[in-house]
Amino acid sequence: LSGLDPAQPYFQGTPIEVRLDKSDAEFVDVIHTDSAPTIPYLGFGISPAIGHIDFYPNGGKQMPGCGKNPISQIVDLDGIWEGTRDFVACNHLRSYKYYSDSIIYPDGFLGYSCASYDVFETERCFPCPQEGCPNMGHFADKFKGKIKNDFLKLYLNTGEAKDFPLWRYKVTVTLSGKRKVKGYVNIALYGSGGNTRQHQIVKGTLQPDNTYTSFIDAEVNVGTVTKVKFLWNNNWLNPTLPKLGAATITVQSGEN
Known about the structure:
This protein is an alpha/beta fold. The protein has two domains: 1-165, Rossmann fold; 167-253, PLAT/LH2 domain (Lipoxygenase-1). It is built from four helices and twelve strands, in the order E-E-H-E-H-H-E-H-E-E-E-E-E-E-E-E. The two termini are 28 Å apart. It is found in: Cell projection, Neuron projection; Secreted; Zymogen granule membrane. Belongs to the AB hydrolase superfamily. Lipase family. Residues 167-256 form the PLAT domain. Its EC number is 3.1.1.26.
């Protein structure tokens, strides 16, 4: 049984006979996309974990792409009717859009087991454990025999618009150079499955011999990495023309 952002009003905090619960089926997976409190945030979705596995994409409260201004949201690519629905209940409706995308991308939407979304943003829930990570959506039941805890809360990020799946990589860059500069470092990944756009790893003071780590939620599954593009830039013109390079770049895939 797959719960697509099960309703919060009249259901949250009620007995299990009234609402969706993991006792309702052999395997219950839930996608939470609108779990902010109903008052004052108009959250339509239930927030507690109620299934065998519960996915909280983007933290489960505010979905990327749902904060657009009303005009651009209503005059949507999918038409006025779809746009108006998205304006009224964009976060809530993301659950079925993620689910339909998950059918097309069986390797997408990996959920990382974590205490909270804030912890997910750190290095503590990465990479996947030995038994792997479940896939949010249609293929969640592949994880059926691997659940050890009473409740499994899973976190991931998605894109702002179709296609929604993102693949998570941890990128560690050690810089080389003569002196520190102010600026930013971007990285793009090239691989057997496709190439990513440039993603920013660090911004601010760039100190040679220092190591900087960041996560990339890439729009493609890169597959086997064949090349890494390193690009850095000054924040302002520097007449001394400082040079900066990468001594090492390590790319770790979340999946394996």
